[in-house]
Amino acid sequence: MGLKSFLIYPFARKIVADLRRDAANAISLQKQTLELLIGKAIHTKFGKDHGFKQIRTYADFKQNVPIRDYEDFKPYIDQLKMGSPDILWPGKPLFFAKTSGTTSGTKYIPLSRESTPYHVNTARNGLFSYMVETGNRSFLDGKMLYLSGSPVLQKTADIHTGRLSGIVNHQIPNWAKSNKLPSHEINCIDAWEEKVKAIVRECAHMDVRLVGGIPPWVQMFYEELLDYTGKSRVIDVFPNLSLFVYGGVNFEPYRSQLEQLVGRTTDSIETFPASEGFFAFQDKHPAEGLLLNINAGMFFEFIPLNQIHSDHPERLSLEDVETGTNYALLVSSNAGLWAYNIGDTVEFVNLNPPRLKVTGRIKHFISAFGEHVIGKEVENAMLEASNSLGFQVVEFTVAPQVNPRDGLPYHEWFVEMTGYSGDPAEIEIKLDEAMQRQNIYYRDLIEGKILRPVKLSRLKPHAFRDYMHSIGKLGGQNKVPRLANDRKLADALTPYVLD
Question: Does domain 365-496 have CATH number 3.30.300?
Fold first, then answer.
C-alpha cells in the first residue's frame, strides 16, 4: 500500500458513511432539496415568472412549473448569454457547458458556483465507494488516465464556456492532480486522433492503473497503444491496470471486445454524468444499479415513459416511483434548471436506497409500426447474441427499413464486429428471437407478417470511427445513437457495409 492510498482511505470511509446515511433518508432529503431550491431562487426572473413565493408543496410546484426541454428554456438561457444576472439562479453562471443535439444547434447549460463542485465530488464518491466496498485502493498509487474533451475554455458574456469534461478538468482536487493523465498540454489537443496518439506516446511507459472514458473511445486508445508498443495485450503495457470508469453508454455490448484487448477482466465503475448534473453512480460491487445522487442540489421527477408525449403526463417524485417501470427523468437544480427533461430514461432496480439503471434516450427509439423498441431491448438482444455465438461487438446501431425494394419491411442492424466467421443468418436469428421475447409489439408484427425478421448488415473495420470522423464527432463525449426511427444514420453507414 502506498502513502497516498493509506492517507486517503480514512477520508473515503467517512464520505461513504455519509452517503449511506443520506441514501437511507432519500425521500426526506429530496423534499428538503426542493424547498431549498425554491427558496434560493425566489427572487430570480424565473422564480418571479412562476410564482415561487406561492409554492408551498410539491403539488404547487407541478402546478406552477411546467416541464421544459432546452428549446423551452432557451429564452432564459439567451438572457444569461447576454450577461444578465438573477435569471434562473441568483447571480451569473460560473460556467456554460456546451453540448449539441437540439434543433437550435449548440446547447449552453449553466453551471453555478453551487452546482459545479458536485460534478467532481460525485465522481470521487464513486471511486471512494469502490475502495470501501472492495478494499482495492492501489489505483491511487499509480496513474489515472481519463479520456476527455479539451479543457480549453472560451468566454460567453464573460462566462467561461466549454465541454463539461473540459470544465471538470479545471476542478480536479489536489490529491488527484499528481496522478492524472494526460498532461494539460496534450489534453488541449482538439483533434481526437492526434490527441490519442499523443496520449499513447506520453503514457506508454507509465504505471497506469485506472482508465476512464466512453467505451468506444477507450477501445480506440487501447488499439493505438498496442500498435505503438507492439504488445498483444494492454496488461503487457500496464500490468497494474485494475479499474475502468465509464459513463454515458451501456458497457455490456463492448465488454467482450475491451476485455480481449486488455487481456483480463478488470473491475469497473459505472457513472451517470451529464452537463445538466451528475445524476447517479455505482456504489456497490458487484453492481446493484446506480445510486441516485439525492443530496447534491438536485430534485428529481419521473414521468412514466408511456406518458411522455401526452399533454398532461403524470409527474412523480421519488416517493411514488416503482421498480420495473421506464421513466423519463426530470431535474430541478442549483444550476437553475427547473423541471428540465434531460432526455434520458431510467428504471429503478431498488427503492430503498434508490438505485436505477439507464435504459436509453427518449428520442432514440424505433416505432415505425407501433413496436416501441427502446435502447435497452436492442442492447440486451445484441449481448445475448454475442455471448451465444462468441463474437465481439465494436459498435452497432439499428434503424427501420420501411420501404425495402423487395419483401416486407424490417429492422436493419448495422454492426461492426470481430471474432466471427460463421453464417450471418445465425446472428439474425439470435437477435430476432431475443427481440420477440422482450417486446410483445414487435413479436406481434413479426407473427402478423407486418415485419420480417431482423436483417444484419456487417460493416467494414473502423466504419463507425470513420463515420464519426466525417461528421466532426470523433472522440470526447460523442456517442453513436443506439437506434433511430428514421434512416438518416443508416443511409450514412450504407457505404461502409461489407459486400
Answer: yes
For the entire predicted model, the pTM comes to: 0.86
394: helix, coil or strand? strand
The distance between the two most distant Cα atoms of the chain, rounded to a whole number of Å, is 68
> Domain limits of the chain?
1-362, 365-496
Distance CA 53, CA 55 (A): 6
Q: pLDDT per residue over 369-395, tens digit each?
A: 888 898 889 999 999 999 999 999 999
C-alpha cell at 4: 497516498
Q: What is the Cα–Cα distance from 269 to 212, expressed in whole angstroms? A: 9
Contacts of 243 (CB under 8 A, 6+ apart): 130, 136, 139, 209, 210, 211, 266, 267, 268, 269
> Does the pLDDT of residue 101 top 70, yes or no?
no
Q: Is 460 helix (H, G, I), strand (E, B) or coil?
A: coil
CB 276 within 8 A of CB 342: yes
Fold of 1-362: Rossmann fold (3.40.50)
Q: Cβ(146)–Cβ(109) under 8 Å?
A: no
Mean pLDDT score, 112-136: 96
Q: What is the rounded average pLDDT of the residues 15-23?
A: 97
Q: Which residue has the cell 407486418?
A: 450
Listed ranges 102-111, 135-144, 358-367, 477-486; the one with the highest mean pLDDT:
135-144
Q: Are 356 and 344 in contact (CB under 8 A)?
A: no
- Cα 213 to Cα 235: distance, rounded to the nearest angstrom: 18
**DSSP class per residue in 358-375:** EEEETT-EE-TTS--EEH
Residues in CB range of 311: below 8 A, 6 or more apart: none
Looking at per-residue pLDDT, the higher value among 446 and 99 belongs to 446
Supply the DSSP string of 285-313, one letter for each residue. Answer: SS---EEE-TTSSEEEEEEEGGGTTSSS-
Common-topology check for domains 1-362 and 365-496: no
Judged by average pLDDT, the poorest of 48-52, 135-139, 359-363 is 359-363
For residue 79, how many other CB atoms are within 10 A of its CB? 17
The candidate with the shortest Cα–Cα distance to 153, out of 72, 214, 234, 98, is 98
